[in-house]
């Protein structure tokens, strides 16, 4: 049987990874968090004191980087970095790494290889519009910046991180802007993607809606 490819795109905090993980389990297919890949490169830059504004340096480093997914873990050069890629420092720098075209080529290449070898659901910004334009199903999740910000805020507070709600909302808006306005493969709804507004909807509501379209 042909591999199934499901694309879940949308801005930060729209619920993509939560929904994608549940759908992956439900359909017994692999889940790839493509944002985690850009985060891993960003983490490596920070660890190496690479100036993120120096594109040539970031590209050099990205070329020497190995990223892999296994058993719901993300590996950066052979080491699990699930938690390290979620720090505020990584979050605040990742959009500037993700806008570099050559870095995107490297990541997209890995995503396409994974998509070709098994059925997969990928969440990101450009999966339906660029990485897999022929995906079997495409969803574009949205929610108001306030709702997306308060979801992220709750996650951070639960982890014990001290933040202000307004700062989290402002950071999300800033990230949306960089992601949407970059030159190459920006955050955009593919023409044939199904838009789902998750504002005020429960996780179950959104999962049911997505599954209904797939089955
Ligand atoms: O989904 P996330 O917040 O973990 O994504 C981190 C960053 O990576 C986000 O600011 C945009 C970028 N990204 C991207 O440019 N393309 C993707 N396919 C996934 C994420």
Textual characterization of the structure:
- By secondary structure, the protein is α/β, with parallel strands linked by helices.
- It has one domain (5-199): Rossmann fold (3-Layer(aba) Sandwich), CATH 3.40.50.
- Helix content is 52%, strand content 16%.
- It contains 9 helices and 8 strands.
- The protein has helices spanning 16-27, 34-47, 55-63, 88-98, 101-117, 127-131, 145-158, 165-181, 203-214; strands at residues 5-9, 30-33, 67-70, 73-76, 79-80, 120-124, 137-142, 194-197.
- A 5-stranded parallel β-sheet has the order 2-6-1-7-8, with helices on both faces. A 3-stranded antiparallel β-sheet has the order 3-4-5, covered by helices on one side.
- A hairpin with a 2-residue loop joins β4 (73-76) and β5.
- α2 crosses α4.
- It is globular, with a radius of gyration of 16 Å.
- The model has no long low-confidence stretch (mean pLDDT 95).
- 2'-deoxycytidine-5'-monophosphate binds next to α2, α4 and α8.
Give me the secondary-structure topology.
Layout: E1 5-9, H1 16-27, E2 30-33, H2 34-47, H3 55-63, E3 67-70, E4 73-76, E5 79-80, H4 88-98, H5 101-117, E6 120-124, H6 127-131, E7 137-142, H7 145-158, H8 165-181, E8 194-197, H9 203-214
Helix pairs in contact: 1-9, 2-4, 4-8, 7-8
The structure holds 2'-deoxycytidine-5'-monophosphate.
Key words describing this protein structure:
binds 2'-deoxycytidine-5'-monophosphate; globular; 52% helix; alpha/beta; Rossmann fold; 215 residues; 3-stranded antiparallel sheet
